[in-house]
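Checklist before submission:
- one chain only
- standard amino acids only
- sequence pasted in full

Submission:
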Amino acid sequence: MSDNLRLRVITSLGDIPAEGWNACVSDETVKLESQDRGPPSNPFVSHEFLHALEQSHSVGRRTGWDPRHLIAEDAQGNIVGAVPCYVKTHSQGEYVFDRGWAEAYERAGGDYYPKLQVSAPFTPATGPRLLARPGAQAATVRATLAAGLVTLCGQLGTSSVHLTFLPETQARLLADKGFLLRTDQQFHWSNEGYGSFDDFLAALASRKRKSIRRERAEALTNGITVHWLTGKDLTEEIWDAFFDFYMETGSRKWGRPYLTRAFYSLVGERMADRILLVMAKRAGRWIAGAINFIGADTLYGRHWGATEHHPMLHFEVCYYQAIDYAIAHGLRRVEAGAQGEHKLARGYLPSTTWSAHFIADPALRRAVADYLNQERAFVAAEGAELATLAPFRKDLAPGQS
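Returned file contents:
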């Protein structure tokens, strides 16, 4: 640890000022003129988002996400670094699946849980995890936080530390400190300077272009209209409707949805200008919707739900409207969440995601390291193969991320 840095652990983001935490949320995947001004570049590690999860009881000891956030302070007591960290008693809501590791360790007589999880809960979106206030000391702060996580793992008696959906640069930093690297694939859309959705379509092969036009037209049959709601549009009535969609679809997908109704009110109050709801209406009432969060240069699609089911409506509300919005607002990228090879035909290309894992037990660590060596090779090969199936014209295919 640097001599002029002190680490401490807090059990609630309410224990520190939002300004101090947010000053550390500089996403090195985004180039901004001033990273320490305005809202954080990545919405999911902002004080507002993470504190809303706590205050709404979407996370907490009862849910198996017990906050143990790591804070770095300088000699004057200023917050210069932070890590969003949780003691986990299960592996739910993470989207990087380690249940097989847990089962193997438990069969061998070990206790995999509790573990430490560094992430934005329930959010498979890449963003910084070792948060550091921009400046000459930032690299030292990140290195100190990485070492502090290993120390915290030992102090709490947890089996491991898992940092998921972090930038490759931070993953490589952790690899140099003995963490194991894991990769996976998501599908992201890249804005190649398009002036309109038709410009994007013009970059596609003819057959794919016709297919998307047909899907968009079919989605809006039966008198369905689609609306963008943000800022002051996000009333409690709107959140009531969206929460109904979330519960209806989430109950079928996950059994028990993760987020409480109070969460939406809190983020709607604190982050309204950074939220886009794409809502579908038929016969005067809302029937479906998708929630997106707006970053510095990226639109992050999170989840969707519906109380009426119409052909192609999911693709329209979640994917095509997100592209429309990104083009209209000059955003560089759309990240549409975890998994889903069906996104490929709609212009979302394979993109590698990264996680880093510290395993305290040497035997389990060796077994996991062997597995990850094979898995990384498979992920790379699969990504290369999927890229060949991209719908773009061969003379206009955008670069892979």
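Reviewer check: Residues 362-387 form the longest helix (26 residues).
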